[in-house]
Amino acid sequence: MFGLSELKQTLFYQQAFEEGEQKGRQEGKLLAVPPMLAAGLTIAQIAEALELSIDDVKTSAQQSE
Asked: What is the DSSP string of 17-58?
């Protein structure tokens, strides 16, 4: 039978897991945008600090309003 340990060794599982981790990191960064704006940082400063595009920071800022 194909168990969990065998599934974790498949390329499909490893790629899906990595994709999920990347999405989680991106969402975490976007959650940091509103407090950084409230602290007085500019969109450009936030984008640079979080390694995001300016468009992503602007979108996140607009969604939090």
From this structure: HHHHHHHHHHHHHHHHHHHHHHTT--HHHHHHHHT--HHHHH
Contacts of 57 (CB under 8 A, 6+ apart): 33, 43, 46, 47, 50
Q: Is residue 50 part of a domain?
A: yes
In a domain, 4, yes or no: no
The phi and psi torsions of 42 (rounded to 5 degrees) equal -85, 165
| CA-closest candidate to residue 33, choices 1, 5, 56 | 56
Tens digit of each residue's pLDDT, the chain (65 residues) = 678 888 888 999 899 999 999 999 989 899 999 999 999 999 999 999 999 999 999 999 998 77
Does a structural domain hold residue 24? yes
